[in-house]
Amino acid sequence: MTVSVPPPDLQDRRTWMGLLARARPERLAELVPDEPDPGPVILRQPEIGTVMVQGRIGAAGSPFNLGEMTVTRCSLRLESGAVGHAHVQGRSKDHARRAALVDALMQTGRAAQLRRDVLEPLLRDEAGRRLARAGKAAATKVEFFTLVRGEDR
Fold first, then answer.
1. Does the predicted model carry a pTM greater than 0.85?
2. CB 69 within 8 A of CB 87
3. Which residues contact 102 (CB under 8 A, 6 or more apart)?
């Protein structure tokens, strides 16, 4: 059975920020080169910290603390006044800075270009990773069947 998932709306800030946070740091660096001088004003230097991750049994039960996760956050402002924020998993300060830069630039006239040159390739990469993971999971699927015995008729 194949499930078709509609592509996300890349106009939605929550969607593009999630995509940037989940992107591979090296891939984001490839798609978003270093910003030109003068660069954006850093409002909050990239800093590493932890957040408590909560879970729910069956996605509906009472929340419980699952554990801590390392994150890096950054905030910056462009000359135009647009402010970008990012929280990314792990300790990559460069990843957080680039994600915040793209967030800020998406709020300017360059949004269509960034959607085409950065977000859509990241979306394709993510879809490929999900497909590969689903393929690995499908390879481990076990089908059970029963035979009809004579006395079961």
1. no
2. no
3. 16, 20, 28, 32, 84, 114, 118, 119
